[in-house]
Amino acid sequence: MSDDILKLDNVSFGYGDNRILNGFSMKLGKGEFLGITGRSGKGKTSLLGLCAGLLKPDSGEVLRNYARASFVFQNYRLLPWKTVSENIVFPLKGRVPDDESFEKAEKYMRMFEIGDACDLRPSQISGGMAQRTALARALINEPDIIFMDEPFSALDSVLREKAANLVRSYCEENGCSLMLISHFSSDIGMCGSVISV
Amino acid sequence: MLKLNIDVSARIAGVLLLFLVWKSASAGMGSLVLASPEDSFRAAWRLLNNADFVETHLAVTIFRISVSIISGVVAGVILGILGGTRRHFFIFAEPFRRVLTSIPGIVAAVLAMLWFGLGSLMVIVLSTVFIVPTVYANVAEGIRLSDEKYIQVAEVFQIPVFYRVTDIYIPAVYSALCASILIVTGNCVRLVILAEVMGTESGIGFVVSVSRARLDMPVLYGCVIICFGLVWLMESASKYLLRRWGSV
Prior knowledge:
By secondary structure, chain A is an alpha/beta fold. Chain A is 33% helix and 27% strand.
C-alpha cells in the first residue's frame, strides 16, 4: 500500500438486485492516471463514488491513502446560493483565510477563463462555465487525487483541450493521481491505464 | 401598474369592510361590549402619548417579546441543527417537541407561574419554550431533507462541521427558517400578552387585565390595536433582518 493512493480489495456493490460490482479489485498509484469507460448505466459513477467514499461497499474493502481529494461531479454540484468565486473557494473553508482564498481563486478563474462570471450565481451561467467552475474548485483544493466524472463534456473542443491540459499539468507537477470517467477517447487518452466496465 | 392598483384597492376594501363590520357590531351590541373603532383608536393614541404607559408597559412588553424571540430562535436553530444532523438526537427530542407543541398555552402559563413566580422571567421562559419547538422542527426537518448531493460535496472536500452548517445547512433551510421566524414572531406577541394578563404587574397584558376588570372597553380595544401594531412592527423587523441576512 506504500505507493498506492487507493486500493479496492474484493469490493461488491449494487442497488438491490442490480449488482454493479462483484469482487472487484484495483489499485491506483501516486501520480497515476486511470480512465474508466463503459456504456451508460454500467456503474462508472458508482465506482467513482465508492473510491471517493461517497458510497459504501456491500462487502470488501476500500483503502484510501491520501490527505485531500477533489471531485468534479457530472452535474457540477455547484452550491446554488453561492457565486462562482465563492464556489471555487469553498474547499478552502476553514483551512485558508478568506482573502488568500479569493486571491487564489482569481488565478484559477483566469486560467479557466471565467473571471467575468465571478459574481454570478450558478443559475446565471452556462453549462460550460459551470463545468469550468467545478474544475477550478477541484484544482484550488490542491488535492492528492482528483475524481472526475465526465469533466469536460460541456466544453467545446478548444476549451476541452485547454482544460484537460490544465488538469494534466497540475497532476504531473504535483504528483496528483487522477480517476477519470469519460466517453471521449481524447480524455481517456491522457490516462496511463483504463478500466472498462 | 393596473395589477398594483387592483391590489391596493382590494386591500383598502378589506380594511374598510373590517371597520364597517366593527362599527356595526359596536352599534348593535353597545359600547360596553364592543367599543367603537373611533373610541378604540382614540384610546390607543392616548395610551401611546402617555409616558408612563410607554415606559412601564409598552417598553417592558417589547423587551420581553424581543428577548423571547431571540432566545427561542437561537435555541431552536442550535437544537434544530443537532436534530437534523444527529438522527439519534432527533428521535430522542421528539417526545419533548410533541409535548411542547400540543400543550395549551393557558396550561403552560399556569405551570410557568407556579415554577417561576410572577414577572418577566416567567413571561420570557414561557414564550421561549413555545418558540423553540417550532423553529427546531423547521430547521431539523429542513436539514434532514437537504439535498444529499450538496452534503456529498462538503464530504468530499472535507469541509469542517462549522462551515457545513453555515454554508450548506443554513442556506438550505433558509426559507423554512424564515417562515418559522415569522410565525413565531406573531405567536410570541400573543403569548407574552397572555402571560402578562395572567401574572405580571407591568406590560400591555397587565393594562388589558386592569381595563377588563374596570370594564374600560376603549382602553381594552386600544391595547388590542397596539398589539396588532406590535405584531406588524416585529414581523417587519424580522423580515428586514432576514432579507439583509439573506443578501449577505
